[in-house]
Amino acid sequence: MATQMHNPPHPGEILRSLCLEPLGLSVTDAAKGLGVSRKTLSSVLNGRAGVSPEMAVRLSIAFNTSAESWLNQQVQYDLWQAEKRRKSLRVSKLAA
């Protein structure tokens, strides 16, 4: 199994701290540049929504990054959250 990052940040936190803040972009201006609503971007920035494949492509174009890097951040975050709930999942082993 690949090594997982310990408690990875939500991609919205990375987007805010490494992309929006250094460029002095407001949520409104960034949303306009990305071609999404302010509400949509705000949901990602505040961790209420994840980075979709389409949003990953938009971010890659806007900030000269790779879509894969945004999706990887989202997967790492989602997996970390799921692993925290592992013991509460009711799953039976189906293979040896």
Overall number of strands: 0
The shape, in one word, is: elongated
- Looking at the structure, the CATH topology is 434 Repressor (Amino-terminal Domain)
Give the terminus-to-terminus CA distance: 18 Å
Multimerization state: single chain
Query: Uncertain runs with pLDDT below 50, 5 residues or more?
Result: none
Integer average pLDDT? 95
CATH architecture: Orthogonal Bundle
Tell me the radius of gyration: 16 Å
Q: For this structure, what is the CATH homologous superfamily? A: lambda repressor-like DNA-binding domains
Question: What is the number of independent domains?
Answer: 1
Tell me the number of helical segments per DSSP (H or I, 4 or more residues long): 5
Briefly, what CATH class? Mainly Alpha
Largest sheet: none
SS-derived structural category: mainly alpha
Tell me the strand percentage band: under 5%
Residues in helix, %: 55-70%
| SSE arrangement, N to C | HHHHH
